[in-house]
Please model this.
Amino acid sequence: MQGKVTTYADSKMAAHAHAMASLSSEKMKEMEKTMIDTKGEGDGERKKERKKERLAKSVKSAEARRALCRTLSGQDAANMESGSASLLRLELHDVGGNRAHLHQHCRGDSGGRHRLSSPISKCPVLLPGVLPTGMDLLQQDRYVVLTSALVGAFEPVSTVVVAGMGAAALGRKLYYYLYEACDENWVKFNSTGLEKDLQTKLFGQHVAARVVLKAVTGFMNNENPKKPLVLSLHGWTGTGKNFVSQLIVESIYRKGMSSGFVHLFTATAHFPHEKDLELYKSQLQQWIRGNVTNCPRSMFIFDEMDKMHPGLIDSIKPFLDFYESLDGISYRQAIFIFLSNAGGENIVQVALDFWTAGRDREEIELKHLETALSLSVFNNKNSGFWHTSLIDKNLVDFFVPFLPLEYKHVVQCGLAEMAAKGLTPDSEVVDLMARDMSYFPKEERVFSMKGCKVISSRLDFYV
Model:
C-alpha cells in the first residue's frame, strides 16, 4: 500500500472515480443510451428491476467491481469499523486496466501482512476461490469476498461458492464412505467385539484368548506405544492360529482381511527360493516401509514363520525395534503377527500330561506352557527363530500358545460351521463327522490330528 491512510468513504469515492475514468467513450455512450431507454419506464419496482438488469448486461468486469464497492453502504462500513478487526484502508487498483484488486489491512496484523479472517469476521477478506472442478478462480481474474457485510451485495457468487463448497464436502464424504482410508471410519478398534468373538467363536483356547485380548486391547488403547505390537502364535495345525489373526483383523479394520492395510505373507508361497534371499529382503523392506507410510496402523501377518529363512526374518528386525522413527517413518502403531507350528509338539505334551493326571484342561495356564515354548522355539537350532536376533533383543511382545483340540471342540467347530453356511445346526451330522476324523494318541484318541482346519470341506460330505 502507498500514500496516507484514507477513510472508508474517501477510498470508496476514489475507487468510483478511478473506475469511471477507466471507461472508454464507447462504453459511456452505451451506458447513456441504456439509461435513456429506461427513462420512460417509470419509477415502479418492476421498471427499476429491468433497469438494473439492462445495466448489468452492459457493465463488464471493471464496472462489476465498481458496483461491488458502491454496494458497501455506510452501515456496512460502520459495522466493520466497530469490530475488533476494523477496516483501516480499502483501495481499488486497476492493473493494466484489466484487473482490480481489493486490499485491506486489519489491526493487529504483524508486519502489515494480509490476514485471512474467518467468514464471519467484520473485516472483509479477499481470497482466491476454488471451483468444484478444482480450477483456481485466481487464474480466471475472479475473487471470492468472504465477509458478513458483503453477503447481500455478492449473493450470486457467494451462492455458487457455498454450493460448490457443499458439493465438494459431500463428494469427500461419499469418497471416504466408498473408498477405504486410514481413518476412524475404516480403522477403529472394537474391543467388545474382539472379546465376544474370542469367547463365542474360538473353541478350546482359553489361554490364547486371554493373552490375545489383553495384548491387543492394551496396545490399541495406548496412544503412544514405544514399539509396534509383535505377537508370535504357536501350536499344532488346525488349532486356530490363522482364525485368531482373522478375528484381530476384523476387530480393527472395517473391511477385515480384504482391507488394503492388512498384508499376509506365506513363507513357501512368497519366499520360495533361497537363492533370491537378497531380493526378498529388499522387496519386503520396501513393502513394509511403503505401506506404513500410507497407513501407520498397518498389519503384517507372516504365516509359516518356522519355514522362513533366518536372514529374511532379521531383515524386518528394524521395523520391530524401539525406534521413534526410521528415515522419518514411525512404525510404532503397526502390528506384526507371526504364525508358526514350532513348539506344537511340546505344547501337546503339556496338555497330554494334564489329561493323564486327570486334571481339567482349563487349569492349564501360560506359565505351564512357557517352558515348552522355550525348549522348542528358543533352544531349537532347527527353528528359524533360533538363528534370529528377535529373541535376544526381546522384540516379540507375546508368545501365544495354542492347545491341541479335543473331540468336543471339533463338534463345536462343526456346529458353528453349519450356522455360518446358513444351515440348521445338526448335532447328529456333526457328531458323525467328528468321529470319522483322526485323533492321537492312537489308543486314547484324545486330540484331533487336524483340529478344525478341515471342518468346512468335510462337512459338505455329511450334510
Q: What stands out?
A: Residues 155-178 form the longest helix (24 residues). The first strand starts at residue 87 and ends at 95. Confidence is low (pLDDT under 50) at residues 1-5, 72-155. The CA atoms of residues 253 and 259 lie 7 Å apart.
